[in-house]
Specification:
10 strands
């Protein structure tokens, strides 16, 4: 049986989503995304001003990859901004997918939970397939699922910090309570080992941008994340041994043959 990532009834072979911002050059961006093995690339529409024909070379590079596009609402601070940008993205890219970001605090870029729920409801009613970015708050994730989100994207840590999974307990709780929701860790991942840990917890995928784009060698780092996600998923499916409080020898002595040496060393 194949082990595919499902996002709103679409299936993908890779469990790594990759962002398209912050790379030192467009060619490095393209090479890194290809090295990641990702099937999905996110786009920050507000920063590129596509409605004014901005960044045409950038769009050409993205389109040449032949990947599924996931527009986002990065930089939005209100429901009105989110709805306007989502409608623009649907018209430009002919997709009803939207990664919903609605920032409530400019210091740690934490999503506004109240406005996020409002925007989610509006977009779902308007036919969008919403992938909301939120904190690792179980109640918020439950409310998003109740509204009809089939995919939820809690953070591991604040955007761009690279600190990994700050609260594994909270993330495990979300996974346990929402077994039928596709869960994608979005934000805070800094190392391939962080991605592996998230997949080992049962999360379905990872979205990476800064950790790849701001590495000294983005292409090599993208390759590392490609392997890390596969390793984490394989480890989760293998059902790892339970942790124990006391030591236990890996080679038991009971029932084992006993060898001895005579005085001649034979």
């Amino acid at each position: 049986m194949s082990d595919l990532l499902t996002i709103y009834d679409h299936t993908f072979s890779s469990r790594l989503l990759v962002g398209s911002a912050l790379y030192p050059s467009m060619q490095i961006m393209k090479n890194a995304i290809q090295a990641s093995g990702s099937n999905i690339v996110t786009l920050s529409l507000r920063r590129q001003s596509p409605e004014k024909n901005g960044g045409q070379v950038f769009w050409q590079h993205i389109q040449s990859l032949g990947l599924t596009l996931l527009p986002n609402t990065a930089g939005c601070h209100s429901v009105k901004e989110v709805v306007n940008l989502a409608n623009m993205s649907r018209e430009l890219f002919q997709t009803n997918w939207i990664k919903l970001e609605l920032i409530g605090d400019d210091y740690n870029l934490q999503p506004d939970p109240v406005e996020l729920l409002k925007a989610t409801q509006i977009l779902l009613q308007d036919g969008f397939k919403v992938l909301p970015y939120c904190t690792d708050d179980l109640v918020i994730c439950q409310r998003l699922a109740d509204l009809g989100c089939q995919v939820i994207m809690p953070w591991g840590a604040p955007i761009g910090t690279g600190r990994g999974l700050l609260n594994p307990y909270a993330l495990e709780s979300i996974r346990h309570r929402l077994p039928d929701i596709t869960l994608i860790i979005d934000a805070g991942i800094g190392l391939p080992s962080h991605a592996t840990q998230a997949l080992e917890l049962g999360y379905d995928a990872i979205l990476i941008n800064s950790a790849i784009a701001q590495a000294t060698d983005p292409v090599s780092m993208a390759t590392a994340f490609n392997y890390a996600v596969k390793a984490g998923r394989a480890g989760y499916l293998a059902q790892p041994m339970p942790a124990k409080q006391t030591a236990r020898p890996s080679t038991p002595t009971l029932g084992m043959p006993f060898w001895h040496h005579d005085k001649q060393g034979g």
